Amino acid sequence: MTFTVLARHPQSGLLGAATASRSLAVGNAVPAVRAGVGAVASQAWTNRALRGLLLDATDAGADAQTAIDRIADWDSGAPLRQALLLPARGAGAAHTGTETTPWTGHLVLEDAIVAGNLLAGPGVLEAMRDALAPLSTLDTHAPDAAARFAGVLVGVLAAGEVAGGDVRGRQSAAVLVAGATEADGTVDLRVDDHADPLDDLARLVDLRAADLRGSVTAR
């Protein structure tokens, strides 16, 4: 019912999550980011509690695969869940339950994870993967680096939508970005109900970028 990207920039410590869906207020239910710890998403037949459980396990020292493997212990509905975990450091991991609605799947990459369910097909994830390329040239020293990172993630969602996205259509989207510490610039933006949520989310990211540039100028 949703497609999501988690990504990190290892050199700068930026972590982000972005998600889109034909469900109301997807940003309230699916993604979470904890500075210096990781990015996470819980979707399909969503269990919101998994986000905190996975991040807490990561913060306590578990690697991503170990944390993901605990979903079956935490949640009797694990076959209905799709969950992704990308720690600030180390390999990411994902779980796509056997009872999630097709087409469903995930790709775990070196510094990102893309995943979705109720999608047009695997080409959605492949397009999202390819759209991550701009992260390799991101200027992380810019005052609006967090917003630039968010812009790339929204572009990843847009690529997934062009490839077919959620077969039911579109309604909401969200993007979260945190720096290596809470003191770094952040992005926390949602479009809960809109005819073109990704376009409106991109507009909000541009506004946030201007805010971040302005905060540096004001100093």
TrEMBL record:
<dbReference type="InterPro" id="IPR029055">
    <property type="entry name" value="Ntn_hydrolases_N"/>
</dbReference>
<dbReference type="InterPro" id="IPR010430">
    <property type="entry name" value="DUF1028"/>
</dbReference>
<dbReference type="Pfam" id="PF06267">
    <property type="entry name" value="DUF1028"/>
</dbReference>
<protein>
    <submittedName>
        <fullName>DUF1028 domain-containing protein</fullName>
    </submittedName>
</protein>
